[in-house]
Amino acid sequence: MKFNPKTTIAIIVLLVVIGGAYLLLRGRTSTPSPTPSTPGAAPSETSAPASESKATPPTSAKRTPKTYRILMTPTGFEPSNLTINTGDTVTFFNNDQRLRWPASGMHPTHQICPGFDALRFIPRGESYSFTFKTAKECPFHDHLLPTLFGKITVLP
């Protein structure tokens, strides 16, 4: 049996379209709601016992983690560079008509900051959040549009 190259290409394109539609629809069912750009009320923290508080300088008090927002726009990420502290969360909110996919560098492996990868399409109006637990520089990009990129610097 001889295969027509046009038919083979059409079948491959059809399979890619069906697979993409499946991934798109599957991602919509488990979409997290956008988080506010300002930190919410955190649970109260208990103080250390008096004997420990004497040994600990007042500057080492635990701080409340914050949530930051990065907008994904048609021109890129806003802001494209952000400095945060360990334990802070960054929410990537899609404000673009196109599907977006924020992830750690380097494209396409996303291994510089393990776990920082949406692993799915983010439609307009939806978001992806990640809490940074390690102090380091985390370059990031849009997996679907790798020419759009930025950097999050995580301080200790």
From TrEMBL:
Q: Which domain of life is it from?
A: Bacteria
Keyword Transmembrane in record = yes
Q: Which SUPFAM superfamilies does the entry link to? A: Cupredoxins (SSF49503)
Question: Where do Low complexity bias regions lie?
Answer: 29-61
Gene3D superfamilies per record: Cupredoxins - blue copper proteins (2.60.40.420)
Which parts of this chain are annotated as the region Disordered?
29-66
Q: Tell me which InterPro entries the record gives.
A: Cupredoxin (IPR008972), ET_Amicyanin (IPR052721)
Q: Which UniProt keywords apply?
A: Membrane, Transmembrane, Transmembrane helix
Per the UniProt record, which residue ranges are transmembrane? 7-25
Supply the name of the protein: EfeO-type cupredoxin-like domain-containing protein
